[in-house]
Amino acid sequence: MIDRRKFIKSLSSLGISLPLLSAKSFTTTAKNKKMNNPIILCSRGKDWAEDVLKPGWDILRKNGSLLNAIEKSANVTELDPRDTSVGYGGLPNEDGVVQLDASIMYGPNHNCGSVAALEGIKTPSSVARLVMERTDHIHLVAEGAQNFAKMHGFKIENLLTESTRKIWVKWKENLSDKDDYFPPADGNYDQERTTGTINILAVDKNSDIAGITTTSGLAWKIPGRVGDSPIIGAGLYLDNEVGAVAATGRGEEMIRSCGSFLGVELMRNGRSPQEACEDVCKRIIDINGGPSKVDFNDKIVALSKSGEVGCAAIRGKKGQEPEVATWSKKGLKITKGTYLI
């Protein structure tokens, strides 16, 4: 085993510093903040906030299980066919098959679990929790993830609703004017590709932290494509001494920037949750060559150990700022975030 103190001391003697490994600046800041715990957060705004957060808050306010709270809130959108970006009713890949991704992370033991390209299971976040709790693995994918879910009693179902099937058919028919598909006579179809995802983050009365990210991913994706949602450090990351960060939007950018991990480390070094979210957005813009090169969007949300909230997006419009919702002893609250370009 490597002695951490000796290791850091030896690096220091060589003039090498490790600023992102130090919790001193965050710890000093956190002591001066008034705790607002328990608190639960979702990355959706006012249209979904109450429905999503109430089941989780009802558990937290009774000092119930932190993991049960975030799972119950995540399940709300996973089971709702009106939401076409998460769980049942999510828009499919290019073959018309719904493939779901989800991850979960638990602060007290820094454990995590995830599933990717999971078919036929409405609640991938619940399967991800079982991966975390009932296996020595972190990540299960595709058929292996489905077999694991079946072993634990999950029912295999068709996740494509009639509504999303029609949307997929319209996309297929409008894909090219050189194939043999004909679009509908009314031509009424929005060809914008849908992204979605939902993040659930929470801190309980003991200031322990947990989080979930769950999604059906990018509509019409190449079969087998995996975004950031099930990848720890990309679509979700947390540290029980600091806080949690999660993301929605273009997953590939969160993966190649390790965006959620970066956000937590920024908070560890003294940045507020809001500043950390904005800094992650800026990093993504920078690695893409500046604002003129960015034709996508990512939204970052953060929750500190003390219950402080952050929310920022790469792109936005005045009057349509990104939103984040929280429920605490102060009640349900919608907070408007910021955007960079």
Please provide a brief summary of the model:
By secondary structure, the chain is an alpha+beta fold. It contains ten helices and 13 strands.
Describe the protein's architecture and organization.
With 341 residues, this protein is α+β, with helices and mostly antiparallel strands. It has a single domain, classed as (Glycosyl)asparaginase (Glutamine Phosphoribosylpyrophosphate, subunit 1, domain 1), CATH 3.60.20.30. The protein is built from 10 helices and 13 strands. It has an 8-stranded mixed sheet with strand order 4-3-2-6-5-1-11-12. Strands 7-8-9-10-13 form a 5-stranded mixed sheet, covered by helices on one side. Strand 5 and strand 6 form a beta hairpin. Helix 9 (259-268) crosses helix 10 (273-287). 50% of the residues are buried. Residues 16-31 and 186-193 have low confidence and may be disordered.
Q: Could you tell me how far the N terminus lies from the C terminus, measured between alpha carbons in angstroms?
A: 47 Å
Known CATH architecture: 4-Layer Sandwich
Could you tell me the mean pLDDT? 89
Strand/helix succession: HHEHHEEHEHHEEEEHHHEEEEE
Oligomer: single chain
Quick one: how many beta strands?
13
**Runs with pLDDT <50, length 5+?**
16-31, 186-193
Radius of gyration: 20 Å
Structural class by helix and strand composition: alpha+beta
Our count of helices gives: 10
- CATH superfamily, called what? (Glycosyl)asparaginase
